Amino acid sequence: MKFNLSSLLALSAAALLAASSPAAAATRPPKAPAPSHVALPKDVTPERYQINIRPDPEHLKFLGSETIAVRVKAPTSRIVLNAADIAFQRVLLISPSQTAGGPGEAASHRIQSWTPKIALDKDQQTATFAFDHPLAPGRYDLSIDYSGVIYQQASGFFALDYTGDGGTKQRALFTQFENSDARRLMPSWDEPGVKSVFSLTVRAPAGQMAVSNMPVAASAATADGSQLVRFADTPKMSSYLLFLAVGDFERVHRMVGKTDVGVVVRRGKTAQAQFALDAATQLLPFYNDYFGTPYPLPKLDFIAGPGRSQFFSAMENWGAIYYFDYALLVDPKLTTEADKQNIYVDIAHEMAHQWFGDLVTMAWWDDLWLNEGFASWMENKATDHFHPEWKIWLQTKAGEQAAMRVDARAGTHPVITPIHDVFAAANAFDGITYQKGHSVIHMLETYVGPDVFRAGVRNYIAHHAYGNTVTDDLWREIDAVSPKKITGIAHDFTLQAGVPLISASLGKGGLTLTQSRFGADAASKAPRTWRTPVTVAGLGEPWRALVSAKQPATKAASASVTPLLNAGQTGYFRSRYSPELEVRALAAFPRLAPEDQLGLIYDGLALGEAGYAPMGDFLATAKAAQGADNSVVLRALAQQLDAVNDFYEGQPGEAAYRAFARARLAPAYARLGWDTRRGEPDNDAVARRTVLGVLGALDDPAVVAEARRRFANWLQHPDSLSGTTRQTVLQIVATHADAATWDQLHALGQKATDITDKSRFYRYLGESHDPALADRALALSLTKDPSPTDAPELISGVAGVYPEKAFAFVMAHRAQVDPLVEPTSRTSFYARLASGARSAAILPPLNAFAATVPASARGEITKAVSNIRFALEIIAKRLPEVDRWVAAHPG
Ligand SMILES: [Zn+2]
């Protein structure tokens, strides 16, 4: 799954930075924890589901019937499985299973059946079937008739409405099950460790298309004019990977080797599907080769649905990957260069899951990172292979920084984290699981070398295909083929939270590296040790050392040397130089590789904010970086300057800091300008959008005036803006909107026919800096005007500017807002709204909100609280430092 980091980024760079850690100061090397979680009993397990679904989209409900071939492994008088929002009409257990044994075996037994008593546990989302006698071990058929709900948010079985060609109202149906919503389509053993075969049949309106994991095996017209579509049996797989969609779709496709690769879109949208089809065509052979096991299903579809979710943008259902439009379709008028790159990366991500996650699946949610960290690393490896010009590894550094900031504060968690129950699993979809996970894998791959790492991965896939694993199964395979063993290092980085700090100093013995812990608050300063692979450049040959708290490393070096820590920036740690070495590193800035320039910028701000170094070091780095020629470096500079600006809202030094920040971006603005130049590198367009956006946020008068001029012109000449420039202009105009402009944007949103375009207009309506307009946006979110999936986006937009206002509003209207957000992500949605607050006054209501949700679901709230506390500390302690430095270094 691709979780919505982008919506977090939109809140503000600083709002992302949440996190922390259990205070335990374990200095012994960590070992894998014993699993302890609430799960279904395993004395009865499913082998094959035969499921029939009859949707009633008009009334948002459906009828279901299923026959589950189950195996009773030990005598028991009850069967427990998952069900949520399911009404049971009839449950029958039939013995012996007619699917059991060889031909003729079933017929030789007398068929018996029993009707159990049904008990539902709404909180645990289980149904218990109690029998009046113990069931003997063996095979049975469990036959169930039931009805369920079609939702209007993207979880379970859900409907998305849109306007079709000619203005007709259309409704399409889709499913989204990760992590625990398959139980909303069918009573089931809805846990990743329970794999079964699924045989799905759906009744669909004549003329519509039904899509699932497997190709259609048979379809037949029914007496009422519908069609009954039966899909081929899936391989053995986890329930969260099942998929179903029904709608007025078209499919473009092509054979890639033996695989039928297709993109399924709403009628009329096939032109926008070409980019995705081409990307998948490119990537499939790459993955077949990398994993050493060819993609095992006969087809691989990418399905686009209108709308959005606050939780995710795409989902790796096996053979039927789901995306929201904006994450899959390319429209030159609306898609920016960054969107296009994200689409490619998202395709690479979900395709990697077809092996890592779908073919081989984590046994329980504790190891979610094994899916997500791996896919997040692989998306970049594959993208970089085909698009080296995008410098994707450099671009990943921004997300990695966000994870590191969370990881240095209260609320963080180890990459492998105990997940007590499925409700806590939703908390695991975060920057630690995805970005720290991918960084750790990148570090380990660099440590053993890419060929050795791939050999281990190939064995891992081959040995565990169609099965379930824990993380140590992967380390074991790599260690088996690698001369350098990684399990110890991997345990240090995945079983304990936190960020190592590697410090360099020069003495009589030469250059010494020590390891301590980088913590931004008291909870994160408890000592901890990591065996950290460190590469140092600047000493002649690169020096590779394994440094831990117990074992510093020293190498002879001349007194005038300029060492560069974490050369290549593949290590997951912060780097700190002694003051003399810091001065030398900064002087070398223009000659450094872009990734190392990024390292200095990111570490500079992080060390400054947390009080490990003067904020002046970061500001001096920003001055050095303003002349950088790499677009990714310029973009990072703009984002970091914006992050500091975010703390300055309403503070005394605001004007002076903004002038300083604008001056740092002036050279980039002069180089990039407003318009795409013929033949320019793709990344210039990405950097241009960020630099202009940040200059807009810094109230740069020339940039705001130019955006307004272009907007006015565009109203007269609708073809005058497209792609990246269109979004840049609209966003700057929206954040600086007065009431008349806001009304214009509102009218444009109402008129927009493209779902993604419409959705963006509603987001813009929330982003005005005028508090009265923010109130209007909030009020609008509860009307029928925005679509049900755009309404929360409007509220998120307001939270980016007025977090206190947005949070107070949703708390006052919870009964109306709750249904706008899928249940899985409701708590994190609310927590994220508050996360950017810059006033302690929000803490009591935030704590009051925490008391209303189960303890296991409070992770995101804890992160929001630590984010707010850290921001308050930066405002109180660091901004005065910035004020002084800026005053002392004019220009
Ligand atoms: Zn994923």
Question: Can you give a write-up of this model?
Answer:
This protein is α+β, with helices and mostly antiparallel strands. The chain is 40% helix and 22% strand. It is built from 27 helices and 31 strands. The strands form eight sheets. Strands 2, 3, 5, 6, 9, 12, 14, 15 and 16 form a nine-stranded mixed β-sheet that branches. Strands 1-21-22-20-19-18 form a six-stranded mixed β-sheet. Helix 7 (431-448) crosses helix 8, helix 14 packs antiparallel against helix 15 and helix 20 runs parallel beside helix 22 (791-801). The longest helix has 30 residues, at 859-888. It is globular, with a radius of gyration of 28 Å. The two termini are 46 Å apart. Mean pLDDT is 93; it is low at 6-27 and 98-108. The structure holds zinc ion (ZN). Zinc ion (ZN) is lined by residues 1-2, 316, 349, 353, 372, 375.
